[in-house]
Specification:
The protein is an alpha+beta fold and about 325 residues long. It folds into two domains: about 240 residues, Zn peptidases (Aminopeptidase); about 90 residues, Beta Barrel (OB fold (Dihydrolipoamide Acetyltransferase, E2P)). It is built from eight helices and 19 strands. The strands form three sheets. Strands 3, 4, 5, 6, 7, 8, 9, 10, 11, 12, 14, 17 and 19 form a 13-stranded mixed sheet that branches. Strands 16-15-13-18 form a four-stranded antiparallel sheet, with no helix packed on it. It binds zinc ion. Keywords: Hydrolase, Metal-binding, Zinc.
Length: about 325
């Protein structure tokens, strides 16, 4: 049986697509602060999947992913419902800032929200109760924080069978498993029976076409896994590593302030002892060499070359020998 999607203020019947500007707060002028929402309710029965982006206002890759799924894909044969939320943090997006501009609140620590709480919690509540909790599954798109870049990977609590199903179906080489900090959309939705995973790709403030295309393949693969589209197969990425709390992984941090010359890109494999980067200053000739403490994969690396002591340089995760060999054999995938 097909189902009508209902939210506070409206309903979308099977076979209908609705483009909504949904009020989540008000500006100082008393005008509505609204988020764009596209709901595509298929004519055939199936699960309800949300796709969300820009919960951090300067993370743009996901906006383009959700926009293309909502407005450029043909959904004539859709089974179930897609809830497309391309820009969750509209005030941050307009200001091109990561956080909600007032008091720098992190919308992604404010879920599931509270309708009589702070302004961030009220926004979170409007989003969560209307467009997240009614869904069966969710994908939330992020990029690295400004000044760094991530290879395409999924973050999910693989101890939750449904979250694991989404994470594997997305078809990325790397899955980092944790239940996530409290207040994040991923964790709170998963705890509230809407299993959700985070997809990380690239850097803030730009569109990165190859990463966006790879993520669109992942969305298609998830929809195939959930039976929402007939045409596409579930994607196998060639090799996969699932990194959990017991695995060796580290953010390598600068021990000196200065200018970083980075010798590797996201997705590179480095051997123990390999030179990852050097830190110099404009005033002296000697430099600090940073070496890989173990053999592993660079999931994230610095883009902005300026560091204080303690700033992150790269996110290195250990790989076992068979995975390292498989990864080396398919470098093109990780280099996207
Ligand atoms: Zn983010």
């Amino acid at each position: 049986m097909t189902e009508t999607f209902t939210y506070d203020g409206g309903a979308v019947v099977p076979g209908e697509t609705a483009n909504i500007r949904y009020t989540v707060s008000e500006t100082y002028l008393g005008d509505p602060a609204r988020i764009p929402v596209t709901i595509i309710n298929g004519e055939r029965p199936g699960p309800t999947l949300f796709l969300s982006a820009a919960i951090h206002g300067d993370e743009l890759n996901g906006i383009e992913i959700v926009r293309e799924v909502a407005h450029e894909w043909n959904h004539d044969d859709l089974a179930g419902t897609l809830v497309c939320l391309p820009v969750l943090n509209v005030p941050g997006f307009i200001a091109q800032e990561r956080y909600l501009p007032v008091y720098d609140r992190d919308l992604n620590r404010s879920f599931p929200g509270n309708d009589s709480g702070t302004s961030a919690k009220r926004i979170a509540d409007r989003i969560f109760s209307n467009f997240i909790a009614p869904c069966d599954f969710g994908l939330d798109f992020h990029t690295s924080t400004r000044g760094r870049t991530n290879m395409l990977h999924v973050r999910a609590d693989v101890d939750d069978a449904d979250a694991a199903r989404l994470a594997y179906a997305f078809g990325s080489n790397v899955v980092i498993s944790s239940d996530g900090p409290s207040g994040t959309l991923r964790r709170e939705a998963t705890d509230a029976a809407t299993p959700t995973v985070t997809v990380e790709l690239g850097e803030a403030h730009r569109f990165q076409r190859k990463l966006i295309d790879a993520a669109l393949e992942g969305v298609l693969s998830v929809m195939a896994e959930l039976g929402m589209r007939d045409s596409a197969p579930v994607k196998w990425p060639g090799w996969r590593t699932v990194i959990d709390g017991s695995d060796e992984k580290t953010w390598l941090r600068a021990d000196a302030g200065g200018l970083v010359e980075m010798y590797h890109d996201r997705g590179d494999i480095v051997e123990a002892g390999d030179r990852i980067c050097t830190i110099t200053t404009p005033f002296k000739t000697e430099s600090t060499v940073v070496e890989a403490p173990f053999t592993g994969l660079l999931v994230g690396v610095l883009e902005n070359p300026l560091v204080y002591p303690g700033n992150p340089l790269c996110h290195l995760v250990a790989l076992d020998d068979p995975t390292t060999r498989a990864a080396r054999a398919s470098r093109s995938e990780t280099r996207r």
